[in-house]
Amino acid sequence: MPFNIPIFLTWLRVALIPLVVGVFYLPDAMLSPGAKGLASTIIFIVAAVTDWFDGFLARRWNETSAFGAFLDPVADKLMVAGALLVLVQLNRVDAVIAFIIIGREITISALREWMAQIGASKSVAVSSIGKIKTAAQMIAIPMLLYYDVAFDLIDTRLYGAWLMAVAAVLTVWSMFYYLRRAWPLIRENAGRLL
Questions:
Q1: What integer pLDDT is reported at residue 15 of this predicted model?
Q2: What pLDDT does 1 receive?
Q3: How far lies 8's CA from each of 3, 37, 52, 112, in Å?
Q4: pLDDT at 122
Q5: What is the pLDDT, as a whole number, of residue 154?
Q6: DSSP 3-state of 25
Q7: Which of 15, 44, 49, 98 is a plausible cystine mate for 84, CB 3.0–4.6 Å?
Q8: CB count, 10 Å around CB of 17?
Q9: Measured on CA atoms in the order 25, 28, 30, 35, is the torsion positive or negative?
Q10: Is residue 112 helix, strand or coil?
Q11: pLDDT (0 to 100) of residue 112
């Protein structure tokens, strides 16, 4: 397993995931509910920044690796799934929305893995719809973790819920987009799938 700064940042993101979740399990005597939301939001944002930064450094320093390419999306999906599960438990996100987002991630990850095995991974490369979906959910999640009025101006509960609904719609749209692009190869290779 190679070790470099980009991979370290990815591992750091994996390590931050339990903290995003764990903050909410601290006793209220240690941390008030508002402080828990703020702490979890800051940890999530730091983790999200490492996601951008590790990819930037890997490309800039030419330190890309097969292991890094595998670990990075796994860390992203764990981060989003962990945060969504906490938000469902706190009644800030509907379980159906969390299921749609997590289910799509599992489905598309499996599709990408299979497409890579048959040498057609470019057919399911990241699309602009997927990037917009990711942006919507990466803004919505910290807003819903914070779950208060920020700077006496932004009601993160309202805007977070709205962005999460947008992310859910884009999640379904992007899943069908990827499945439609892969469908000819799925039909062609149907015998090998069974």
A1: 93
A2: 59
A3: 7, 26, 13, 24
A4: 65
A5: 87
A6: helix
A7: 98
A8: 19
A9: positive
A10: helix
A11: 77
Whether 66 and 32 have beta carbons less than 8 Å apart is answered as no
- Neighbour count for residue 21 (Cβ, 10 Å): 17
Both structure tokens of 16: 């931050």
Break the chain into its structural domains and give their ranges: 1-91, 93-194
Give the type of residue at 122.
K
Unique residue bearing structure tokens 């990815």? 10
**How far apart, in whole angstroms, are the C-alpha atoms of residue 150 and residue 167?**
21
Among 114, 54, 112, CA closest to 79: 54
The token pair at 42 is 């800051």
Q: Nearest 5°: CA angle at 179, between 174 and 181?
A: 95
Distance, in Å, from the CA atom of 158 to the CA atom of 166, rounded to the nearest integer, reads 12
Digit-by-digit pLDDT tens for the chain (194 residues) are 567 888 888 899 999 999 999 999 998 888 888 899 999 999 999 999 988 888 788 888 887 777 777 788 888 889 999 999 999 999 999 999 999 999 998 988 888 777 777 766 666 666 788 889 889 999 999 999 998 888 888 899 999 999 999 999 999 998 888 888 878 777 777 666 55
Is beta strand 154-155 parallel, antiparallel or unpaired with respect to 149-150? antiparallel
Give residue 180's Cα distance to chain centre.
Answer: 22
For tokens 């859910």, the residue is 168
Closest CA to 82 of 12, 17, 164: 17
Q: How many CB atoms lie within 10 A of CB 183?
A: 12
